[in-house]
Design brief:
Layout lengths: L10 H20 L2 H7 L5 H29 L1 H21 L3 H29 L5 H29 L3 H20 L21 H5 L2 H23 L1 H7 L5 H28 L2 H17 L7 H29 L5 H28 L2 H20 L5
Helix pairs in contact: 1-6, 1-7, 2-3, 3-4, 3-5, 3-14, 4-5, 4-7, 5-13, 5-14, 6-11, 6-13, 9-13, 9-14, 9-15, 10-11, 11-12, 11-13, 12-13, 12-15, 14-15
Length: 391
C-alpha cells in the first residue's frame, strides 16, 4: 500500500517529461551537425562558435519576455508556440544556403527555446503539490538527461549521412511534441471550468521574490549548474583531458558519460530527498558534493581523479537539478512566469559566462586556476543554502 507521500504525480508531469526527452534528444542530434554544417559555408572557427553561442545568447535575453507571455497567455499556449518556433527555425536552418541566414535562424530558435523552457517549468511547478515538487522536477529533468545522453550518438551517425538531415528530423520531432503537448495538457473534454478560488495565491512579483532567501539560494545554485554542467564541462573538460591528462577524446567522453549516468541514477532518489528530507539539507548536500567534486580537479592531473570528479559531480547535479526548482515553486506557487524566467536565466548566464571565464583563466594561468574559480562558483550555492531557514 502506498502512503500519502507516494501518491502519483499529476499527469502533466509525465507529459512534460516526455516532451523534455524529445527536445533534448533532438538538440543532441543537431549538436554534432552544427560545426560541420557551418564549416560548409566556408567560414572560420570563430563563426562556428558564433553559430553555437547565438542560440544560447538569444535564449538568455528573451527568457524574461517569455515569462511575461506565460503570465498573460498561459503556459500551454506559450509552450506549444515555443516548440513551433524552434521546429520551424530548425527546419529552415537545414535549408539555409548562406551563413548569415543560418545564424539568424539559430538566434530565432533560441527565442523559441526560452519560451518553451520557461512555460514548461512554470506549468510543472504550478501543478505539482508542495509535497511532490522535488519529485516532479527530478522527473522532468530526467527526460532532459536521457534525451541528452542518446541524442549525440544518433546525431553523429546521421551527420555522416548528411549534415542537413539532423535539422529536419529535429524539426519533425518538435512538431510532434508540440502537438502532443497541446492535446494532452489541455483540460479533459466536457470538464467544467474550475470555479475561481478566492484563496489561491496571485503570481508573486519578481521584486518580492528577490527578497526571499529561498529564491536567491535557488538562483545562485542554478547559476553554478549552468556554469559547470552546461558550460565548463562541455568546453573545458575535453581540452583538459587531451592537454593535461594526455588522453584521447574517448576518455573525455567516458568522463562525461560517467557524470551523466550518475546523475540519471541519482535523480531517482534526489527528488524524494528534496520532498521528504527537506529543501535545505538536500541543497546543502548537493552543493557540498558538487564543490568537493570540482575541487578534485584543482589537484595535480590524474585520470582516476578526473573520472571520480565527473561521477561525483553527476551525483551532485541530480540534487541541484531538482531542489532549486522546488524552491522556486515554494516561493511562487501561482503562475509566476517572470519569477521562473529569471531562475532559468541564471543557468543560461552561467552557461554563457562559464566557458568564457574559464577559458580566459586557462590561457592566462592554468586549468587548475580555472577549475578553482568554478569550484568557488558552486561553493557560493553552498553559502546560500546555509542561509536558508531551517524550516
Amino acid at each position: 500500500m502506498r502512503g500519502r507521500g507516494d501518491a502519483a504525480l499529476p499527469r502533466e508531469v509525465g507529459v512534460l517529461a516526455v516532451v523534455a526527452f524529445v527536445v533534448a534528444l533532438g538538440f543532441g542530434i543537431v549538436a554534432p551537425a552544427i560545426p560541420l554544417f557551418t564549416r560548409a559555408f566556408g567560414v572560420g572557427t570563430t563563426a562556428v562558435g558564433l553559430a553555437v553561442s547565438a542560440f544560447a545568447f538569444f535564449r538568455f535575453v528573451s527568457a524574461f519576455g517569455g515569462g511575461s507571455l506565460v503570465e498573460r497567455l498561459g503556459e500551454r499556449v506559450v509552450l506549444a508556440s515555443g516548440l513551433a518556433i524552434v521546429a520551424l527555425t530548425t527546419g529552415a536552418a537545414g535549408l539555409a544556403t548562406s551563413f548569415p541566414v543560418f545564424l539568424v535562424l539559430r538566434a530565432a530558435g533560441g527565442v523559441g527555446s526560452a519560451m518553451f523552457t520557461v512555460a514548461a517549468l512554470a506549468l510543472l511547478l504550478r501543478v505539482a503539490p508542495p509535497t511532490h515538487r522535488g519529485r516532479a522536477a527530478a522527473t522532468y529533468q530526467g527526460g532532459f538527461i536521457l534525451g541528452g545522453i542518446a541524442g549525440p550518438a544518433a546525431g553523429g551517425l546521421l551527420t555522416e549521412v548528411s549534415p542537413r538531415l539532423p535539422f529536419f528530423l529535429y524539426a519533425a520531432a518538435l512538431l510532434v511534441a508540440g502537438a502532443v503537448a497541446l492535446v494532452l495538457l489541455r483540460a479533459p473534454a466536457g470538464a467544467p471550468a474550475p470555479a475561481p478560488d478566492p484563496t489561491a495565491p496571485d503570481a508573486l512579483p519578481l521584486r518580492a521574490a528577490l527578497r526571499s532567501r529561498a529564491y536567491v539560494a535557488a538562483l545562485v545554485a542554478n547559476l553554478g549548474v549552468g556554469w559547470v554542467l552546461f558550460g565548463v564541462r562541455n568546453s573545458l573538460v575535453p581540452l583538459y583531458v587531451t592537454e593535461e591528462l594526455g588522453r584521447g577524446a574517448a576518455w573525455a567522453g567516458a568522463g562525461l558519460l560517467a557524470g551523466s549516468a550518475a546523475q540519471a541514477l541519482a535523480l531517482l532518489r534526489s527528488g524524494r530527498l528534496a520532498d521528504t528530507w527537506g529543501r535545505r539539507p538536500a541543497l546543502l548536500l548537493g552543493s557540498a558534493t558538487g564543490t568537493a567534486a570540482l575541487a578534485l580537479l584543482v589537484l595535480p592531473p590524474q585520470t582516476g581523479v578526473f573520472l571520480l570528479s565527473m561521477a561525483t559531480y553527476g551525483l551532485a547535479a541530480a540534487l541541484l537539478a531538482s531542489v532549486p526548482a522546488a524552491l522556486v515553486g515554494d516561493v511562487s506557487p501561482a503562475r509566476g512566469g517572470r519569477v521562473v524566467a529569471v531562475f532559468q536565466m541564471s543557468a543560461d548566464l552561467g552557461a554563457v559566462a562559464g566557458p568564457l571565464v574559464a577559458g580566459w583563466l586557462t590561457d592566462l594561468a592554468s586549468y587548475q586556476v580555472a577549475f578553482g574559480v568554478s569550484t568557488a562558483v558552486v561553493a557560493a550555492g553552498l553559502v546560500a543554502a546555509l542561509a536558508l531557514p531551517r524550516r
